[in-house]
Amino acid sequence: MGAIPSERPSQESELRTPLHAPSLHESGLKHTSGEALYVDDLPAPQGLLTGQVIASPHAHARVVRRDARKALALPGVHAVFFAQDIPGVNDVCPVRGVHDEPLLATDEVHCVGQAVAFVVAESAALCRKASALVEVEYEVLPACLTIREAIEQNRFIPHPFFPTHHVIRRGEPEAALMAAPVRIQGECMTGAQDHFYLETQVSLAVLEEDGALRLWSSTQHPSEVQEKVAEVLGLGRHQVTVEVPRMGGGFGGKETQAAGFAALAALGASVTRRPVKVWLNRDQDMEQTGKRHPFWARYDAGFSEDGQLLALKAELVSDGGWSNDLSHAILDRALFHMDNTYFLPNVEVAGRVARTNQPSNTAFRGFGGPQGMYVVEEILNRAAERLALDPAELRRKNYYREVPENQTHYGQAVEGNRIPRIHAELMASSEYQRRRAEIEQFNATSKWTKRGIGYQPVKFGISFTTSFLNQAGALVVIYADGTVQLNHGGTEMGQGLHTKMRAVCAHELGLPVEHVRVMTTATDKVPNTSATAASSGADLNGMAVKAACEELRSRLRPVAAKLLQVEGQPERVVFSDGKAFVPGLAQRALLFEEVTRAAYASQISLSATGYYKTPDIGYDRMTGRGKPFHYYAFGGAVVEVEVSGLTGEHRIRRVDILHDVGSSLVPTIDKGQVEGGFVQGVGWLTCEEVLINDKGRLLTHSPDTYKIPALGDTPEDFRVDLLQRAPQDNTIHGSKAVGEPPFMLAIGAVTALRHAIGAFGPPRTEVQLASPATPEAILRAVEAARTVPR
Ligand code: MTE
Ligand code: MOS
């Protein structure tokens, strides 16, 4: 089977394989029936206690006094922890060498929701009672709540190793701007977004022998949870084991921010010597965790009369919240995606992270990419309106071209650019031109309802931009009866990683998928892992699984060759569909089980680890040059909307997506990722609005005030296709990452909305649409368009 060229699915299909074939999510039926086990569904260990965070009610204050005596006097209350009760390091900052995120506040609190104390009691109700009795006295200090205030006060989070200002520059943007016939200047903002995973943050900690701990955590990053728990308790990492059964969604919100809650549960368990679970309710989760970074941008762009983008200068500032978290890496990715699919000949993009008195903002699907891309798309939309050009055509004119016009602003060549192909295929299949003309006609006669169509191409870089994180491991265990347990370093959050890894493993060993069981992710099976993030879960872990299986196959081949009477010619043995055989030989095929039993009897090891690291990537932040990405994923979307000029409400009438996932490992899973990513992007851009009051308190902390897209908000006609015949070199079986890139296709909805809103005004109306484009924002934009002089 190893002889089969994996980049060519057509040849593979001669042998039965689960790869490149549609299949259900491996837990899909269990998700539906409720049998899938999440952390809170695990059987409660004997003596289980509940832990709860006592959070700061102030955005910024000095902690003057704390006293837990009254709470501790309450029967059933086992412990109350303050900063001074932490035996190890009071810090859970995820960035190596930075210690700016105390697990429990010391002398100052920096946002509403920051953990000040941790109470452990017999029940959640008792925890609440005890929390009310814990006395913490604050002296309120002035708070900085917005990016604007932070800029005025010069409050930025310094980069731990590099200048705080990240600048990427090419050509002569100032001179090119001066010479440009058309200038587009302005500012824009994108908003925060709550992750709204269905399963809120949760961890269960159990004390084992000799002070060791075992945790079950809903985290995308079990190794970091292990690391932080060990540091907080002053233990070696060998004393801490972290397991992840599955997550009910992560979306980036459990990349770093599960660690604090896990560390508190572990602290509680190690001191009370009883199991402790921390499970946030929705309001607590929304108040205590960070969100997608809001970004502010100021830009100055120069165009030719026919819509060629000649020069761009842009300055970005993100709202990092009160501490580092991953803000600098997220800013980097925003800057790396300011070009999207466009060649920028003269460019300077620069960015900084503002420090505000907000919960520390964190990873969220796209990791800054959407925020960076939004800026260039806003500029292109304004240029199209000003120049009265079709925005799709204007975009096409600016695509990356052949060498040397295929170089990004940071110097990586855009190889295998599939955007021109996606553009052509999607324009044809969606009948963009015809529908655009029809919409113009509709709008000419419809007074209060207008329609719009928008096209959005996407290019997204795949790899962790912190290059060393691009590594993964696997442990494949074959039992003598021929069944397999698959362990890999990635976590399952609904994205279908386990389904893909099972397909890869079954393919490599020539087994039906039913013979392969994917085990819960555990740090004692695969150590030192990276977060399942940056869309690279399948890319990295898939290669590691493949490597482990190749090793096992190479051990089994000689055994099978002997049994098949071709001893000494192991390369002739093929494993497929649960059998081992030599093609063309009369000798009957062996069952895989016969081979594994024989291997066991011959004292051959039936377990192996696999390891993978992405080759040849790196970026130099000082020079702003390098190759941060292994490759790019591409996609395109055409979105049609209808807007009511009376209420500002809109409907998405139709969406056509053509997305590039290389040779899809499991097409049904990938299609689901494209649909989900797009809809989540629409949520960010149109209905999800995070609001705080003037004291920095979150107003939108539950679904009655925070609106995520519902079924009724999904496109009425939703056509998603995966780009065919598009294998990618040097990836797992020719596939490409899919988790984040489709999110940004949703920017097409903004372009469509602008088209519809502009139709309320005279030709060449430059639409002023805020983000998110809620009904209020749309109505304001419609009003502004209506009053543009004709
Ligand atoms: N899909 C589901 N259903 N649930 C999730 O939490 N997270 C997204 C994406 N798709 C997510 C999801 C994010 S932010 C990332 S980085 C990737 O999945 C992570 O998984 P992968 O690397 O296996 O694609
Ligand atoms: Mo995804 S934001 O990289 O977890």
From TrEMBL:
It comes from the Bacteria. The keyword Iron-sulfur applies. InterPro entries: Ald_Oxase/Xan_DH_a/b (IPR000674), Ald_Oxase/Xan_DH_a/b_sf (IPR036856), Ald_Oxase/xanthine_DH-like (IPR016208), AldOxase/xan_DH_MoCoBD1 (IPR008274), AldOxase/xan_DH_MoCoBD2 (IPR046867), AldOxase/xan_DH_Mopterin-bd_sf (IPR037165), Xanthine_DH_Mopterin-bd_su (IPR014309). SUPFAM superfamilies: CO dehydrogenase molybdoprotein N-domain-like (SSF54665), Molybdenum cofactor-binding domain (SSF56003). Residues 33-142 form the Aldehyde oxidase/xanthine dehydrogenase a/b hammerhead domain. Keywords: 2Fe-2S, Iron, Iron-sulfur, Metal-binding, Molybdenum, Oxidoreductase. One of its GO terms (molecular function) is oxidoreductase activity. Pfam families: Ald_Xan_dh_C, MoCoBD_1, MoCoBD_2. Its cofactor is Mo-molybdopterin; FAD; [2Fe-2S] cluster; Mo-molybdopterin cytosine dinucleotide. Coiled coil: none annotated. Belongs to the xanthine dehydrogenase family. PANTHER family: ALDEHYDE OXIDASE 1-RELATED, XANTHINE DEHYDROGENASE. This is Xanthine dehydrogenase, molybdenum binding subunit protein. It comes from Hyalangium minutum. The lineage of its organism: Bacteria, Pseudomonadati, Myxococcota, Myxococcia, Myxococcales.
